[in-house]
Structures are given as C-alpha cells and as structure tokens.
C-alpha cells in the first residue's frame, strides 16, 4: 500500500489487513489532540490507519468541525488513512459523513429487530456504495461495560445478514464491551471463528481497549481485521492532564500545555498497541 492516494476506504484498507493477517487500528478522534496523536504515530510506524468519529461523541466534537479536519489530515498523511463514521444510527448522519468526504461509515442497527436492522443496513449500503464509501454493520449487540448487557452474534444469522445486505465489514459481539471494564472481559473466540467460516468478510472488534494483549493476538488469528480502540487511551490522557494541572496550578499557565500532555500520553498508548495490532514486534 502507498502511493499518492492516502485517503482510502474501508474495503481497500481491509484488503491490506487480510493479506497481512493483521488488524488495522481504528481510533476515535473526537478532538484535535487525538487526531494529531493517531496520525503522527501511524506515520512514525509507517502503517495504514483508521480514524473514526462516533455519533455519541458529537456533543464534544461536532461532526461539522472535527469531520473536515479528519478528512484534511487523511489527505495530507504519509500513510493510507480511512476516515470512518463510528456507530451512525440514522441515514441523516450517514449522509452528512459522506458529504464531508468520509470514506467509510458504520450503520449501527443493533438496537433494532433483526429484520429491521437488515432492511435499514441494506438501504444504507446502497446509498454509500454509490459514493465509493464502505459500510460496516453490527449484528448481535455489544454490551456497555458495567451496564447494558450484550448478546453474542449468531453465526447462522450472520450468513443471511451479510449476503442480503452486501456490507463490507461486520462488527460482532463476542464478549467485549464499550467503555472501561469493571472486570477483565471473557472472550468467546469460537464466535469469531464460526462467523469467519460462515460469512467470509473482515470482522470488527469493538470495545477494543482494555483487552489483554494475548487476547488481541488470538482474536486477530481468528479473523478480526479492525479493532476499535479508544476508551482507555482517552481516560489515560484525561488523568495525565489532571495530574499535570494539579502540579502546575500557577495562573500564568496556558491551556495548550494540557493539550500537549494529552497528545504525548495518547501517543504512548498508540506506540504499544499498534505494535500488537499490526504484529510489528
Ligand atoms: Zn463500538
């Protein structure tokens, strides 16, 4: 991979992941700090990367502000970058992302009935494919750490879902959860294996941060090709900025110092996790 066109869609970046049998890191970039950290570290390691913005993060990072910055960073990057909408729940937000120049979107119909999820996902695929944009969908329901219970993806349903909708990647539920884990997650690797065998397409792991390194490696071996990673990196940056602020309370201090602490902290997380996902070490 390489060459002039650095803004790539999910299909192109997943092809690279399948060939190399690695997972591409998909990192949330709800703010300028995370955006800088991810692009800088991907360029340093010379690896393709996915930057993504989640609908639930819009209150802190409006799509019309951070979205154009993401697309611009991707265009100017020295490595291939896919700009992805994470957990889009309506056609309206998918359309906004496509209009901004995003190359990939997730339509999350996991709260809908199976039939309705399939119907709406298919409609979303038809729309985005007209624009050369890829689509990730979700089947089964991811838990939210500490609250919402998830239910595992049914491999038999996955075959029907994938062939009926024409999606490019599938997010599956196999024991991970969004947010900070109250206790270590127990993953069901058989589900990855079964879905991969039944419906041959790139599989996506959500709730990726906070998982043991050995479990990432196992999940990648079973067919996970995109790992969404953010909560622990975001929480780590918050704590470091807080510490720094407490240590330097003088009123002559300026906000951008906290911003730099956040970028450096996130780069530390990325330095480690990218080696694991891309099997660099
Ligand atoms: Zn997610």
TrEMBL record:
Zn(2+) 1 binds at residues 87, 178, 206. Keywords: Metal-binding, Zinc. Binds 2 Zn(2+) ions per subunit. One is catalytic and the other provides a structural contribution. SUPFAM superfamilies: Aldolase (SSF51569). The active site is at residue 86. GO terms for molecular function: aldehyde-lyase activity; zinc ion binding. Zn(2+) 2 binds at residues 108, 138. Its cofactor is Zn(2+). Pfam families: F_bP_aldolase (PF01116). One of its GO terms (biological process) is carbohydrate metabolic process. Gene3D superfamilies: Aldolase class I. Coiled coil: none annotated. PANTHER family: D-TAGATOSE-1,6-BISPHOSPHATE ALDOLASE, D-TAGATOSE-1,6-BISPHOSPHATE ALDOLASE SUBUNIT GATY-RELATED. This is Class II fructose-bisphosphate aldolase.
């Amino acid at each position: 991979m390489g060459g002039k066109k650095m803004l790539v869609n999910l299909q192109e970046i997943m092809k690279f992941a399948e060939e190399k049998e690695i997972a591409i890191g998909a990192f949330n970039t709800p703010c300028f700090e995370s955006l800088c950290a991810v692009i800088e570290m991907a360029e340093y390691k010379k690896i393709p990367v996915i930057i993504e913005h989640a609908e639930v993060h819009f209150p802190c990072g409006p799509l019309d502000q951070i979205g154009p910055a993401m697309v611009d960073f991707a265009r100017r990057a020295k490595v291939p970058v896919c700009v992805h909408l994470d957990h889009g729940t309506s056609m309206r937000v998918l359309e906004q992302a496509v209009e901004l120049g995003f190359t990939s979107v997730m339509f999350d119909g996991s709260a809908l009935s199976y039939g309705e999820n399939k119907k709406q996902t298919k409609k979303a695929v038809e729309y985005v494919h007209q624009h050369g944009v890829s689509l990730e969908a979700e089947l089964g329901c991811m838990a939210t750490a500490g609250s919402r219970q998830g239910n595992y993806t049914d491999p038999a349903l996955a075959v029907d879902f994938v062939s009926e909708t024409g999606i490019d990647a599938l997010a599956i539920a196999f024991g991970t959860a969004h947010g900070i884990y109250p206790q270590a997650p127990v993953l069901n690797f058989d589900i990855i294996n079964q879905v991969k065998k039944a419906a041959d397409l790139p599989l996506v792991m959500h709730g990726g941060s906070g998982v043991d390194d050995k479990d990432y490696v196992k999940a990648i071996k079973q067919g996970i090709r995109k790992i969404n990673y953010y909560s622990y990196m975001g929480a780590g940056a918050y704590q470091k900025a807080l510490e720094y602020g407490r240590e330097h309370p003088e009123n002559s201090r300026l906000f951008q110092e906290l911003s730099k602490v956040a970028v450096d902290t996130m780069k530390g997380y990325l330095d480690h996790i990218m080696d694991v996902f891309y099997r660099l070490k």
